[in-house]
Amino acid sequence: MSNSTFDTGTPPLATPSRLSLMWNSNIGYSFRRNPVAIISMVVFWLITLAAFFAPVLAPYNPYDPSQIDILNSEYPPVWIDGSLPEFSLGTDDQGRDLLSTILYGTRLSIIIGLCAVALQAFLGISIGLISGYVGGRTDSLLMRLADIQLSFSTLMVAIIFLAITQALFGSEVFSRYAVLFLVGVIGVAEWPQYARTVRATVLAEKKKEYVDAARVMGFGPMRIMVRHILPNSLSPIFVISTVQVANAIISEASLSFLGLGMPPNQPSLGSLISSGFDYIFSGSWWITAIPGLVLVVLVLVINLLGDWMRDVLNPKLYKG
């Protein structure tokens, strides 16, 4: 009897893609039924894509001195009398096109926020894993450090650090590496949020059977923490990261507004708001108001997405 295959005429079942699996999951179902989440996601991606494609979309390059004319300063937006048609949102006090500076500034603010949160997550997750898994004196020491860090506000730590850094290295060096300084100080100031959350998850997960099985199989502590325990801690990490991106963007804007962040020749949302604050009562309100509105909308939609993600990933709050 020969081994032959019979064609039944039934086509093989196609393996669904990861995108379709996510779209048909509980998260995708909740997203489709939540108009606030949909609108927030659309607005967020519109702002983000416009910011990262600023070199293509922006009419002018605010970093190119040849495209800046001080005589064009403080022109109003096109819907106000006395405007120029080539400057749709008006110009700032340096004669730069406000639309272009907002696009470039939003990109810089988002980059600083994402990089600062990445640093926070790396430090906090590492410390939280070690603290929860090792326990004992190591846990007590690391958590006391977290308590000390939490007793100071982010802005207080950042103001002290950036003021000392600016005094030590001078304004020219500080302006050159302002992005790195901001990412470093915002990232270091907020790691306890991740550390405490990850530690709590590790304390619950390390007592479960799959961790005991991994130990019996001879896996080392590092592999158990990274390959087995950490994946079960991702849900709260995603929620914290969403909120922390918004907080990092606000922190950057606040520090730039106080003169300890991005310099005026490197536009961010905070430095744009700061540069126009002196002119807000003289009639040139748009220099501060329009970047401020963009900042408010950006932070608002990120926080709304964070609230939605928290409700979906928390089984006690999710109602389907």
Describe this structure in words.
The protein has 320 residues and is an all-alpha fold. The protein has one domain: MetI-like fold (Orthogonal Bundle), CATH 1.10.3720. 67% of the residues lie in helices and 0% in strands. The chain has helices at 18-23, 26-32, 35-52, 54-57, 98-134, 136-150, 154-176, 178-189, 191-205, 209-216, 221-229, 234-257, 269-277, 286-313. It is globular and about 75 Å long. It is a multi-pass membrane protein. Belongs to the binding-protein-dependent transport system permease family. It holds the Pfam family OppC_N. Residues 106-306 form the ABC transmembrane type-1 domain. Keywords: Cell membrane, Membrane, Transmembrane, Transmembrane helix, Transport.
Largest sheet, described in full?
none
How much of the polypeptide forms β-strand, as a percent range?
A: under 5%
Q: For this structure, what is the CATH class?
A: Mainly Alpha
Radius of gyration: 25 Å
Unreliable runs, pLDDT <50, ≥5 residues? none
Subcellular location: Cell membrane
Transmembrane segments: 36-58, 108-136, 148-168, 174-191, 229-250, 285-306
InterPro entries: BP-dependent_transpt_permease, MetI-like, MetI-like_sf, OppC_N
Pfam families: BPD_transp_1, OppC_N
Give a brief description.
The chain crosses the membrane at residues 36-58, 108-136, 148-168, 174-191, 229-250, 285-306. The chain is mainly alpha-helical and 320 residues long.
